[in-house]
Structure formats: structure tokens, C-alpha cells
Amino acid sequence: MATLLPFECRWGIMATGWIASEFAKDLLAPPSTRNVSDITHRLVAAASSSSLARASDFLSLLPCHAARAYGSYAALVSDPEVDVIYIATPHSHHFANAMLALKAGKNVLCEKPFTVNAPQLEILMKEAKKRGLFLMEAVWTRCFPVSIEIRRLLKEGEIGVVKRTEARLDFCHEPLGEKYPGGEHRMVNPKLAGGALLDLGVYALTWVFQTLYHDLPEEEKERSEPKTMGVMQMYPETGVDADNVVVLQFPHATGVASSSIFVSGDNAPSARFLGTEGEIQVIGPAYRPEGYCVIRPGKEEKIVPCQIPGKGMFWEADEVARCIRDGKLESEIVPLNESLVIMRVMDTVRRQNRLRYPEEIETTVYDEEREDVLEILSGSAE
Ligand SMILES: NC(=O)c1ccc[n+]([C@@H]2O[C@H](COP(=O)([O-])OP(=O)(O)OC[C@H]3O[C@@H](n4cnc5c(N)ncnc54)[C@H](OP(=O)(O)O)[C@@H]3O)[C@@H](O)[C@H]2O)c1
How many angstroms separate the Cα of 104 from the Cα of each of 27, 47, 128, 374? Predict the structure, then answer.
């Protein structure tokens, strides 16, 4: 019997910053190191908006000698060999960059948060659907085997009925002024849609939605969209949020998602799922779960560590490859409608706290000239 060859997914990487390089390293790790044999990945090309040299330097550090370097994103999306574009620009740019890729007929994996606001995401979803293209938010956490295992345990009633999820991501490792001098860094820069909610809060929210929403029957989802109440503390220098707490009232349970660049993460679990018969806690940071702990009254605590052979971004890349191979337009692990509901929650919290970004990045108008506007707005791209 003939052995089936693995499906090869051919990637183009848009931008050459920190996460682009982390993703590329994981993408090129041999699939066998995570016991995967049905798909493989090839990095076909990478593009920098600032210079061709930057794209070449980016590729020179990776084991992909035949990959092509481009000095513009437009050139990258025109490469006929690329199946899917991974967008790793600041989130202020995701809407315009994803539109560029979709209009060029490319499938898209877009870094989190998907866009600046929900109406932008709705436009991307319509564009992808119209063109029959795959689209997914790169919430890599959801594709970890440990996240899938936790969802299975909760669904099967390991801790009874889940009544509350609490999740947090706090990220203050150094004195703030030193880390973000002049307020230019994308974490605090309003022109790059900075702020804790969009950058970090999306992970806390993803745990709430994974555990209180994801497994609801489809017909129940619409009426189960949560009521949202959020508070924020602002970063004085730039006015974006530096700390936030969001309370989500679902018909059947409550979610509490918080994130901060003011406070440093302590040893408390990054997520807790509280049920009628016990709780499950996530071990490790909210974005990169390293295991879980099951606590039930009268029973011994069960700690389950999970091996991650690398950073762990390859699992989302594998999910994308399988969806494209199977002709799916979206992932069941990171469904588009769920990304949209989470974007709406973040819109609501920003509205409640009067946090609005410059019109140029909140806009839902896309045209090719928008790329130039964004460059002017955010200054030089490093
Ligand atoms: N999944 C995760 O764990 C994770 C972690 C960190 C960040 N992220 C997300 O990934 C995105 C990028 O974050 P990052 O930390 O990689 O940022 P970064 O290091 O600042 O890189 C962003 C890159 O985007 C490109 N870019 C295009 N226009 C730009 C502009 N006007 N200003 C700045 N950069 C511009 C630049 O590459 P070129 O010059 O080559 O075009 C730049 O190197 C963000 O949306 C963030 O939320 C995800």
C-alpha cells in the first residue's frame, strides 16, 4: 500500500519583529519532535516593510536557505508559491495587512488581537468568506494539547459544572519608565493600539471563552454572549490602559479576566476554573500553559505537567496546515465568531472607559493608500 506523503504548507511571513522570529523558529522545527507526521511546513518567503536587507537578515538566521526576501508586504502577497500569510505586525496594522493578503487571494493567520475593533474583523471575515479563504487569529494558546485536554476534562464534568472562570495575565518585569521610554513602545503607544487589554487581556479572555462559551451548542451561542463590565487604570504618559479587570456575566456562569503592565505576575495560577465539585488551575503563563492541577475536596491534588518541545507556536501552525489541507475556511479550535465576540467585549470595555485610538487605526475604510497613512502615523518601523 502506498504511503501518503505529508501535506506541505507553504508560508509567507509578514514583518520581521520579535514574534515573527519566534514563530519562524517553531515553524521550522521538525514535526517529528512533536510526533506529527501528516503535515510539514515550508517557509517560502518573508517581507519587511522597512527594507529588503531587514528581510534578508531575518531569513539568514533561520534554517531556510531557499526562502525569498521581500522589501514590501505587497510583494510578499504576490508570491504565487505562498499558501498562507502569517501577519506579525503591530495590531494597529492587522486590518490593513490582512485585507492586503486576502485581496491578493492568500489565506491568513493573523497575530492577536485580530484587529483594533470588532467592525474591522467583521470586514475581514466577509472578505475571506467571499473569496473562499482560510482566516484565523493566532491565539496559539488554544492549540496547545494541554488546553485541549483541559477543555475535555471540563466538558466531561471532572469538577462538576463550571460556574466561574478567573484568568489573568500580568506583565511587569521592570520599572515601567525604563521598559517603555518615551511611550513609543507598541505596548503603550496609542498609535499602535497599545494597552494591556488588547495586548494581554485577550489571553485572559480566551480562557474565559474557551471554558464558558466554546463548547456551548451552536444554537445557544448567540443568546449566551455575555454582559460585560470593565474597569481600567491608565498609563499616565500615553493614556492607554495599563491595568484592567473585566467581569463577564454569562447566563450560566461568570468570567473574570484581568491584565496589567502595572503589576508583576505572582505565583497565583494564571487561570482557575471553579466548578460545583472542585477546580482546575492552569500552571504557567496564561499564553503558554505548562500543565494543570485538579483540586477536589477530600481528594489528593493532581498535578499534570505538560512537555512543550520548543516555544509551542508550531501547534497553531499545524492547525492552520490541516485546515488548509482539508479545505476548511476556519478552525474549530479558534473559530472566527468567537474571536469576533471577544473583540466586541474589548470594544465594550474600551467604550466604558473612554479609550479610543486615533481614527486612522479605528477606521473600517481600507484602501491601498492606508498603508502610507499608517507608516506616517507610527513613525519609522524600527
Ligand atoms: N503570540 C504571541 O505570543 C505574541 C507575543 C508578542 C506579540 N504578539 C503580537 O504580535 C504583533 C507584533 O508584536 P512584536 O512583539 O513582534 O512587535 P515588534 O517586535 O515591534 O515587531 C513588529 C514588526 O512589525 C513591522 N511593522 C510594520 N509597520 C510597523 C510600524 N509602523 N511600527 C512598528 N512595526 C511595524 C516591523 O517589521 P518590518 O519592519 O520587517 O515590516 C516590526 O518589526 C502584535 O500584534 C502583538 O500583539 C504576539
Answer: 23, 15, 11, 20
